[in-house]
């Protein structure tokens, strides 16, 4: 039997099952089981496998420990939020769940992407689709405010707070930078912590309120961009929330970037607010801090380099 997902965003949630057996029965009928599995490389949080069922259906399964079930439920909500904009491809969500047999595990079943040949103008098409997603109405995705999301979720394996608010700058301070700085406090000396406090109190010197609130992917780097079954970009592994569109664009530039044709096409479809280049690294400070908190001091130099730009 399907169980309720423990999220306030239940209207966006895929069915959640208490066993893999129940999931396959409900989705594909009696007598359909797993014929073979193939492990897929990639990802440093979850195990990924291709499942081939006895009726020939191929599924993509992400799995982890039972305690990771809320992570998969939140991922399903994020994918559904993007899909409902009707602007850009995401894998179809079959269900999430938790199988209690043996040591047990949590899982998410998704459409299997064939990775077909890319269409012409692949990156330009992606840019226009992303701009359309950023323009789509996000009003129903935040209860009691303009920025945030209908539930908390995850950035990597770290908890991401999405408490609603009416100011983008306040939201970015309270729900993005402050939680990460609290976790990373031990990396900074007293003088640095004083400067960090000043920065948080004066974010309005550096950030700008957006023209419109936009649904963001939230973790938009090349590893979360796939070629879908239509040859276009499809988005995976979201950390969605409603915020400033330029925060998504900033993230694309953090770990290698996309081709220049993407940025040119995006700016043509959705002109950027003046001063984006001055704000970009401050947005990416959130991701660098998250990596520092998840993976350790390898990322400390990058964090301090960005802090130095905004704390003279």
Molecular structure report:
There is one protein chain. The protein is α+β, with helices and mostly antiparallel strands. It has helices at residues 20-28, 69-83, 122-135, 168-183, 190-201, 245-252, 260-269, 276-295, 300-310, and strands spanning 2-3, 16-17, 34-40, 47-53, 58-64, 93-99, 105-111, 153-155, 158-160, 214-216, 225-227, 233-235, 241-243. The strands form four sheets. The chain has a seven-stranded mixed beta sheet with strand order 1-2-6-7-5-4-3. A two-stranded antiparallel sheet has the order 8-9. A two-stranded antiparallel sheet has the order 10-13. A hairpin with a 6-residue loop joins strand 3 and strand 4.
Using only C-alpha atoms, the radius of gyration works out to: 20 Å
What is the helix tally? 9
End-to-end separation: 58 Å
Poorly predicted runs of 5 or more residues: 1-8
Proportion in helices: 25-40%
Give the structural class.
Answer: alpha+beta
Please state the overall shape, judged from the principal axes of the Cα atoms: globular
| Helix and strand sequence | EEHEEEHEEHEEHHEEEEHHHH
Q: Outline of this structure?
A:
The chain is built from nine helices and 13 strands.
Topology summary:
Layout: E1 2-3, E2 16-17, H1 20-28, E3 34-40, E4 47-53, E5 58-64, H2 69-83, E6 93-99, E7 105-111, H3 122-135, E8 153-155, E9 158-160, H4 168-183, H5 190-201, E10 214-216, E11 225-227, E12 233-235, E13 241-243, H6 245-252, H7 260-269, H8 276-295, H9 300-310
Parallel strand pairs: 2-6
Antiparallel strand pairs: 1-2, 3-4, 4-5, 5-7, 6-7, 8-9, 10-13, 11-12
